[in-house]
Amino acid sequence: MTVIKRYPNRRLYDTESSRYITLEDLAVLIGENREVKVVDSKTDEDLTRRVLVQVLLTDDQVQKLNCLPVDFLRTLIRLRDPSLMKLFEHYVGMTLQTFTIAQQAMQQNLELLQKMAPVPADLLTNLLNRLRPGT
Questions:
Q1: pTM
Q2: Which sequence spans correspond to the domains of the chain?
Q3: Contact between residue 3 and residue 13 where contact means Cβ atoms under 8 Å apart
Q4: Cα dist. 121→15, 68, 103 in Å?
Q5: Residue 21, CB half-sphere, CA atoms under 13 Å: how many?
Q6: Residue 110: partners with Cβ closer than 8 Å, 6 or more residues away
Q7: What average pLDDT does this structure show over 30-56?
């Protein structure tokens, strides 16, 4: 897990590489499937969610928000009850886990298909690569 410290001036410091980074650099780390945790430099408060939202709102990333259905965004805005928010968080987490499992299964099936029939499988690989998040 890479720990990023966020300073009061909003600068981000990568403790692993011992350098300051930008939100774009953070997006690259996440795109490389690195586990990242952002903490406040003084209080060690976990700021990961807040900073990830900031990453999504950068010019380079904002178009990715278009994949979120408007009903999802409305529901998120309307949530007020903490217990409903926890339930929603759990539900979304389970949905993402299911998506990841399905994606891994599809990748395994594709690899098997590549061994059996290399040329048609290459076409499917190219298609899946375009569908993969972060590509």
A1: 0.69
A2: 1-67, 68-135
A3: no
A4: 41, 30, 16
A5: 23
A6: 121, 124, 125, 128
A7: 95
